[in-house]
Amino acid sequence: MIIDGERILPTPEELLPVEADLLGPVGGQALLWTGRATTGLYWAYRTILVNAAPTLGQPEVILPAIACTVLADSACLAGFRPRFADIDPTTGLLNLESAQHLLTPNTLAIVFVHLFGQTADLSPLANWCGQHNLTLIEDAVHALGAKLPNKMSIGTTGDFIIYSFNPSKSLECGGGGLLIRSDESRLALEQTLSQSPQSPPLNAETLALLELSYRDLYRSSTTLGRLHHKQPVPAIFPLLTLAYQGLFLQPLSLPSDLPQLWPELPKRLGLRYQKAQSYADQLANGPWQLLNQWQNSGVCWRYSLLIDNADQLINFSEAVRQGGFHVSNLYWPLNQLFAPQDYCPAADQFARRIVNLWVDDNVSLDWVEACAASLWRFSDLARSDDRREELV
Ligand SMILES: *Cc1c(COP(=O)(O)O)cnc(C)c1O
């Protein structure tokens, strides 16, 4: 199905083959096509809220502290209070034990993010959700086409799964989707959509300005966060989600290029994997910790590593950038932007050390080799003082 202005329509014929390919391997019941993954997630949140028994306090959703900000923005917008679980320091993936500490009678849902393409055995998490009647949402944006450790497709565990086809993801033609796994959830979503007023899409100029403003907000907030190591900066994101509503809720623009691009996915994922493997080979045994769990899933979004010396992350990243290479430091801990009282020390350390390198179609294997060489050139910056002393 698709949101068209004020109405909900059946999936356009051109998208049916892609829809069948997404639903088939995970036994999904329906797909809601949207302009962004964030919009799909918002409707999953709304469906959960509308259909849950009333809670005493504000309904809560648990998110991993290391994730894209829009997961928490859309939660606030939908009426949830987002709570933040700490992460596994070796992968950046949600730490179940930390999530369990956040459980309250108001908790209705939890999101698992397949960060950087990594997957994990989700059965302990799914069992816990079952015990407490929590809805499990999988963020598969980085991991389209990935396999779980048991070789099943990702998306075979959660109640809802979100996908994105927007710039910087594995296919960059625009659009997003929400996969619904059970018939019961499909009915609930349809009902929720039919009872909710849909706002008209914004024009391109307004959207571009909102996007620019949001990027500025993110940059200035995270830079402040880096500076104020000990004292959290007041969380302004929850106050501003309504101002960015049009940015988060976008319809899919048609016709979509996805049907033409879709058959290329395996080839593109293969090329990404090859580049990621090249980084893994060249960067072995450096002053950093390589995050190589994507090797089990078959899918790498950006090649990611944690440098030993947190104090030099910005200098190190900038030095590599000066050589003409793309570097990002994703993500800043969401708890620090939305709820500083949620304590996530592993996420804090992770964010102060994370470096992401490009493996997409815009870079070649030669580029990857040169980029890895550049990391070695500046490896002295990445070395922590303890390790430097060891070497002396
Ligand atoms: C980009 C991203 C999203 C949001 O996708 P959109 O299509 O831009 O809404 C969600 N989760 C992760 C992990 C992302 O990288």
Folded structure, characterized:
With 392 residues, this protein is an alpha/beta fold. The protein contains 18 helices and 13 strands. It has helices at residues 16-26, 37-51, 69-78, 96-101, 123-132, 183-194, 204-227, 237-240, 245-248, 258-261, 265-282, 294-297, 313-322, 334-338, 345-351, 365-377, 379-382, 385-391; strands at 2-4, 7-9, 30-34, 60-64, 81-85, 107-113, 135-139, 160-164, 176-180, 288-290, 303-307, 327-328, 354-357. Strands 3-9-8-7-6-4-5 form a 7-stranded mixed β-sheet, sandwiched between helices. α3 (69-78) links the parallel β4 (60-64) and β5. The relative contact order is 0.15. Pyridoxal-5'-phosphate is lined by residues 36-38, 68, 70, 113, 139, 141-142, 164, 166, 176.
Brief overview, please?
By secondary structure, this protein is α/β, with parallel strands linked by helices.
